[in-house]
Amino acid sequence: MKSMTEAQPRESGRFTFRKMVEGFDVVTRVGRMALHYPWRMAAAVAALIVAVVFQLYIPQFLGTAVDNAYGMLGHADTLDAARQALLTTGLLLFAASVLRGLFTMLHNYLGESVGQHIGYELRMAIYDKIQRLDFRYHDHAHSGDLITRGMLDVEGVRLFVNTGIMRVILLSLLIGIGSYRLLSADWLLGLLALSFVPFVGWRAVDARLSLRESWHRLQERLSYLTRVMEENLQGIRVVRAFAAQDYEMGKFDKASSQAMEITSERIRTRVSNGTAMSFAFYLSMGLVLLVGGQKTLAGEITVGTLTEFLAYMTVLQMPVRQLGLLVNSIARATTSGERLFSVLDEEPDIKDRPDAPDLEIKDAVLQFDRVSFAYQLGEETVPVLEDVSFTLSRGQTLGIVGPPGAGKSTIAHLIPRFYDVTDGSITVDGQDIRDVTLKSLRSAVSVIQQDIFLFTSGIMNNVAYGDPWADYDRIVAATNTAQLHSYINDLPRGYGTLVGERGVSLSGGQRQRLVIARALLMQPSILIFDDSTAAIDAATEQRILASLREHAADSVVVVISHRLSSLMHADEILFLDNGNVVERGTHESLLAAGGRYQALFELQSNPTEEE
Ligand code: ATP
Questions:
Q1: For 30-344, CATH number?
Q2: Which residue, 215, 217, 247, 336, is most buried by CB atoms nearer than 10 A?
């Protein structure tokens, strides 16, 4: 059986030439992003070309220096002239090395800086997109996966500027011009000097792709190990209670040995390929020495020319070995870019219409007109609400009750347009909510959700999340209505007390009250309690509702609850079942009707009797 913590591979299979061609669009898109910084990019390429020119001059100067030194051994016409020539060549060699170093530094700096700017641009774009994508997208997206895209994939694309674009130019120039110079100086010696290139290039690319593939497998194993350990720590009491230490050890040991095997395989790949590439290089060098030595003896070339060949080979060795890194960079940018751009290209269904006006609230009349709704699960649509209608105006309260899964929270989610209705319409003061800006709609509607989320920050910041400029009195008024102010005041650090993941442990009811205060602070025209008083005791809940009637008298209030005492004072109560309103009326009329509401009321009033 597959374990619950089994990892899903981020990427499977080896990167092939076909994938590289398929990923061409992605790579060119990253390239176009680099052109957002034209001057920086142009300066980086110019610095790189200058660095390559100096690098290619080095073997030539070395060859000349050797010939000059050879001249000093009595082969030159005058010793002084040879000494002078040697000195000049030495200085030129020194200057070329220094300038090559300086321009290399410059192009690395500029390339890296363009990469960092692209990284910033992408990070902001993806974060912005995540904020704007609608609930339909987030319902199916894995948050861990989105975090990976926002962090690791941005890194993969960012690095492509220096390790991909700049390296392509560098390697093409070095290998292209270097090979041309060797072949044009002496084609036979040139061919021998270049004989290592195909083999080393092939091994470098092949080994790098194999290391890349095993790196993904290793990451997968390591993240699996992390999750096993995390789950073990979280569930340590369950593990001990079921005496499952041996089973847990076995599970960890298996994944740990697999990780070790992959590491050994990677070491073997590295060592064997490194050795093979060095062997091929030195073999070529040996051949050049053998044939070049004979040519020197025969007077066909000078010792300096032979030195020049050997020095060119040394210069070429590194770029050829780096072909692997280049392919790796393309592969990483392709897969990372594909994943990133797929999020960036996603268009939210729920967005402002062009030139949409802001919502204008006069009488705050909220109307559901024959609203139907279905969730989209892939290709499938799941109908959840059918023909729901009601009208509420300022100061009125609507109660919604019904069995689990009846569609109550869905009604709450339709009002701030977390989802759009499938049929019918929702209007506020006659304005269809699809025709006004989302910002104005959502600042007029506050939904207090079942799931409580607190930010890791002080109580004050959590309450004032929707309006960081709210003054102290407004914050206190909101916490007072939520029946939380006196508790906060008694805390040693009062409103500065840290809550959230690493903050003080608030009880479920206190957390709910904090979230209610956060919503009340916004003084919304439409206030929705989505089963958000379930963890609060009945007496405190009644105090909150009484205070609310006083402080939110101008709002439209929707109370969704399983507890009838929470909504029995509502102006209208809907009993929802399977997406349909099966009963509606006031508490009294529903009791008198003797239907399901009345049965539920009986059950909640006299639970033991009913049981
Ligand atoms: P509860 O009282 O348990 O909170 P509810 O009456 O509020 O239930 P909803 O949360 O509105 O019910 O869900 C109604 C139906 O829609 C359920 O069958 C649920 O499985 C389904 N549903 C809810 N949210 C989604 C979603 N995001 N995607 C697909 N189906 C969903």
A1: 1.20.1560.10
A2: 336
Q: Is 377 in the pocket of ligand 1 (CB under 6 A)?
A: yes
Which token pair is 277? 């590439």
Structure tokens at 435: 């025709």
Q: How far apart are CA 466 and CA 495, in angstroms?
A: 16
- Number of residues that this document lists for the chain: 611
**Under the phi-then-psi rule, with left for phi > 0, alpha for psi from -120 to 50, and beta for the rest, what region is 609?**
alpha
Q: In the chain, where are the structural domains located?
A: 30-344, 366-605
Cβ atoms of residues 520 and 469 within 8 Å? no
pLDDT level of residue 243 (50, 70, 90 thresholds): confident
Q: What contacts 125, CB < 8 A, 6 or more positions away?
A: 344
The whole-number pLDDT of residue 389 equals 93
Residue 498 CB partners (closer than 8 Å, separation 6+): 456, 457, 458, 504
Kindly state if the Cβ of 384 falls inside 6 Å of ligand 1: yes
**Neighbour count for residue 409 (Cβ, 10 Å):** 19
Residue ID of nearest Cα to ligand 1 atom 4? 404
Distance CA 609, CA 361 (A): 48
First to last CA, the chain: 41
- Residue 375 CB–ligand 1 contact under 6 Å: yes
Sign of CA dihedral 225, 229, 230, 234: positive
Higher pLDDT pick, 5 / 414? 414
The SS3 assignment for 558 reads: strand
Condensed to tens digits (0 to 9), the pLDDT of residues 523-539 reads: 889 999 998 777 777 77
Which residues neighbour 505 within 8 Å (Cβ) at sequence distance 6 or greater? none
Band the pLDDT of 1: cuts 50, 70, 90.
very low
What are the structure tokens assigned to 252, written together?
């960890």
For residues 4-35, b (16+ Cβ closer than 10 Å) or e, as one string? ebebeebbeeebeeeeeeebeebbebbbebbe
Assigned fold of 366-605 = Rossmann fold (3.40.50)
Closest listed residue to residue 332, CA positions, set 162, 171, 164? 164
For every residue of 170-239, DSSP letters joined together read HHHHHHHHHHHHHHHH-HHHHHHHHTHHHHHHHHHHHHHHHHHHHHHHHHHHHHHHHHHHHHHHHTHHHH
Question: How many Cβ atoms are within 10 Å of 1's Cβ, its own excluded?
Answer: 4
The per-residue pLDDT for range 550-594, each reduced to its tens digit, is: 777 788 999 998 888 888 888 999 999 999 999 999 999 998 988
Question: Which of 133, 137, 377, 408 has most ligand 1 atoms within 8 Å of its beta carbon, as the pocket-test mutant?
Answer: 408
Query: Which of 439, 450, 443, 444 has its CA nearest to residue 408?
Result: 450
Distance from residue 531's CA to the centre of ligand 1 (Å)? 13
Which residue is listed with tokens 């649509």? 381
Q: What mean pLDDT is predicted for residues 178-202?
A: 91
Q: Is-same-fold flag (30-344; 366-605)?
A: no
Q: Determine the Cα–Cα distance for residues 238 and 248; give it in Å rounded to an integer.
A: 11
Q: Does the model's pTM come out above 0.90?
A: no
Tokens of 45: 């390429």
